[in-house]
Structure formats: structure tokens, C-alpha cells
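Running co-folding for BIS(adenosine)-5'-pentaphosphate.
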Amino acid sequence: MTRVVFIGPPGAGKGTQAVKFASTLGIPHISTGDLIRAEKKAGTPLGMEVQKYADEGKLVPDEIVLKIVAERLEEDDAKKGFLFDGFPRTIAQAKSLDRYLKIHHMPLSVVVFFDVPDDVIVERICGRRTCRNTGNVYHVRFNPPPASGRDENGKQLDLYQREDDTEEKVRVRLKEYEENTAALIPYYKESGVFQNIDANRDISEIEADLADLAIKLSA
Ligand code: AP5
């Protein structure tokens, strides 16, 4: 059973790599950002509560995120392992996850840190386009959507720019990252499963390193 955590600043490329990595390992890709946006879209009371934080680029309070994650971990597919993308994002979340994993005798296999400088992040986020129909993520310059307007399976693309993907909101998200999430690096370095990845490279180069890691994890 493989249990993976991807951490890193906003726009570091976690989601882009998580889709393939999780599929290679046969584990669900659990993005707390996606779960939060799904709540928001469903218009539930919880969705309305989280919207005001997420749209502003602020972190959603720990107790709400932990509730959403606990519910997701109860689903059958998470029993065979998981890849968390963007969770944990605070020391309190990390400690809560540790407690859960300890109770269930499920140690983490690896924590991958996506290392990218701030100036690269702003350019990546402001150029991101996401598809409403497929969930695919593109970049106007680095990973342009097909000119045909359809994905590789022939599905029609319906691209939009996320509410929090403006330069102003990215600055807020980076501040939140520095104040709350960066502390996870020393935290996980001590755990012995920390792995740094130079994410300031082409998508294909990072993907190749992760493919090697997937082979090691499956051995
Ligand atoms: P979330 O959706 O998780 O956003 P994020 O962490 O800010 O991460 P992103 O999705 O922005 O970036 P990414 O690293 O996945 O990059 P991507 O692969 O898309 O969270 C959104 C909000 O939800 C948070 O602000 C917060 O409010 C809330 N939230 C979520 N989790 C929470 C938690 N645990 N606690 C509290 N609140 C939480 O790539 C970005 C762009 O770059 C794309 O266009 C892509 O095509 C391009 N790209 C990717 N890799 C490369 C590359 N190597 N070279 C060039 N371009 C690249």
C-alpha cells in the first residue's frame, strides 16, 4: 500500500504531476483544493463557508479541512493507499494526519516537496487554464490546450481561469504558504520519508523522476 503526500507552494506543479503518478501507482489522487471547490460548487452550507477563504487565497480553517479529509478517507478506494495533493498544509493538519495513520498502522511511504522559486510560481498560476468538463489543467504558454478545442479522447474543452488565479491572490497564497505551510519541510525532513524534487524544470523531466520514484515505491 502506497501513501504519498505532495507538498509545495501554490502553482508548483503538484496537481499536474499527481494525476499521472497516482494513476501509475493505482491509488486515488486526493486534492483538498478540488474537494473544497466541489463543496463550493455544490452550494452546501460548508461550501459557502469555505468559499470566502478559498476565493481570497487564504487557507481554509483546519477543522473544516480535517472534516472533509476524514470523510474522503472513509471511501473504499482510499483503503488501498492515497496521494494527498495540497494536504497537509499546516503543522496541525500534519499532526492530525500522523495520529490517524498511527491508529490505522499506515505509515507514509514518501513526502515529495516541489521546490520552485516565487517568480516562477506567479507566471505559472496566472497562465493556468482549467477545463470544466475534464478537470485537465493547461498553461497558456508551458502546456497549451490543443488547438482543436478537444482533449486526446475527443472531449470538448471548456476552459476557465480559477477565481484565485490572479496575481493579487497569488501573493496572498504565497504569504499563507510562507506563514503556515513552509514549516512542514523541517517537520517531514525529520520523519525520514522526505524527498525534494527540483520542480523548476520541464514537466516531462519532473515526470521522469517521479516515474523512477514510482518504480522504487512499487518494488
Ligand atoms: P489548491 O487547489 O490545492 O491550490 P494550490 O496548492 O495553491 O495549488 P495549485 O492547484 O494552485 O497548484 P499546483 O501545485 O497543483 O500546480 P498545477 O499543477 O496546477 O488549493 C486552493 C485553495 O483551497 C487554497 O488556497 C486554500 O484556500 C484551499 N485549500 C486547499 N487545501 C487546503 C488545506 N490543506 N488547508 C487549508 N486550505 C486548503 O500547475 C500550475 C500551472 O503551471 C498550470 O497551468 C500547469 O500547466 C503549469 N505547470 C505545471 N508544471 C509545470 C512545469 N514544470 N513547467 C511549466 N509549467 C508548469
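Result summary
The chain has a mean pLDDT of 95.
Residues 131 and 158 are 5 Å apart (CA to CA).
Job closed.
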